[in-house]
Amino acid sequence: MDEVPSELTVSRKLLETLHVNVSERSALPGGRARFSTLVLAVRVALAETPWFPKQRRPDSRFTGAIIELRSGTSFWIHEQHEAGLVVHSATRSWQVSSLEEAVREYIKHTCGESIDGIQIDWSN
Question: How much is the pTM?
Answer without folding.
Answer: 0.90
